Each structure stands twice: as structure tokens, then as C-alpha cells.
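Service request form, structural biology core

Requester: graduate student, group of Dr. S.
Request type: structure prediction, single chain
Budget code: on file
Notes: please return the result as C-alpha cells.

Sequence provided:
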Amino acid sequence: MAPTIGITTYHMSANWRGWSEEGALLPWTYVTSIRNNGGRPVLLPPGGDVSEAEATVAVLDGIVIAGGGDINPAIYGAARHPKTDASAPDRDSWELAVAEAAVRQGVPLLGICRGAQMLNVACGGTLHQHVPDLVGHELHSGPKHGFGTHKVRVTSGTILASILPGGEYFEVPTHHHQAVDEVGSGLTAVAWADDGIVEGIESTTPGEFLVGVQWHPEQGDDPRLFGALIAAADLHYAERTVASSLPPLLAGA
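Core staff response, request fulfilled:
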């Protein structure tokens, strides 16, 4: 059976066939990226509480925290920068709970752009709220309603380097103006743009698939990150299935 991968979504107004209502929205490229690599996508709309997040994560084989708007800086103890966009409180609280549950339960997680930032915040890290203040250019942002490109280098000997090139610069699709600042507990920075901005983080625990990338792999033509997530989700499913078949005392050992 294909592993089940939960993908977080936007919550916003939408228009279709003359209707205008609130919707749980997600760019279709996330769905196809999971399906094309052997996963079974399900959507995780905002609005649930911590207990719902715990129960939901417990029945998933893997998670993608998708890209989106800025995270409320109050969550990581910072004042709002003038360039920080208005936040979506229900999405912030839901994705924070999902990320924290995934970390506790050991469920494979791939954070994309905002998702990488949320993984970092869930582990106690902080964010740079406006990258152009640090680097003096807007290359990370891309066009207003599209994606640009810039170069990223991954450190050799890491989980991310086992999936992507290690030690060499390669181009990635990009659209962000915030980025990881202080790296969260249990995570380490493993990829950087050529201007020094952190572009990738991962778990320091061997064998644990908690990976965040600041770029948008779903917008490119390299499926390897999604393939690696599906492989990790397959393994998690197998381990979960074995554990559920054991007597209670052995399953908890």
C-alpha cells in the first residue's frame, strides 16, 4: 500500500464556478509531487487543536508542511518587523501542533519554505523576518507572483546531501523573504545560499527524517526530496505496522 502523506493547506477565500467561499487550498504541484513519487496525499486543513494534531499525525506515514505566508513572530518571541505580513492564526497554531507532534512521534516530515521555518520554530528556533535587510538584495523573493532561482550548496555527509548534491552549488526555485536565524533544538543547518542564508535544516538524530528546505522543490523538476520522503514514510509505515501487531508489553518496549 502506498504510504499516506498529509499535506498542510491554506485557509482562505476562493472562487470557482461562480461560487465564492472559504476553502482549504493547496497548489496542485504538492499533490502531484507526492503521487508521482509513490505516495497517497491527504490534505490537512487548518483549524484543528493539539489533540487533533496528535491523533492525525499518529495515523500518517509522512507529512509535508507546505509553503505559505509569514509565521506570527510572537510564536518565537519576536516583535513584528514592518515587512512581516499579517499572519493566519489558525494555520500557525495548526501547523505548529502538527510539527511538534511529528517530532514527538518520529513521523517523517518535509518542510517546504514556510514549512521549514515552522519546523525550526516548533523546535525552539527563530527566524530572520526580512532577508533583504541581511543580504542587500531581493533574489530570494523572486517575482511578486512567481518563483525565481538562486544557488544553494548542501553540506556533505548529511541526510540532505545523501538526497541532493553535496558540496556543490545548484539552482533551486525560490520565493521567500524570511529564513532560519537561530536553529532549533535537535536540528542543524545543512544548506546555504551563496550569500550565506540558511536554506536547509535537518534532524541531528541519526535515521530520523526531519528535513526543511527554504526553496520550493515542488516547483522544480528534481523529484528526489519527495522520493526520499516517501521512502522514509514507507519505513515508518512498516515499523508502525509491526508495532501494532505486537502484544502491548512488547510494542511499548
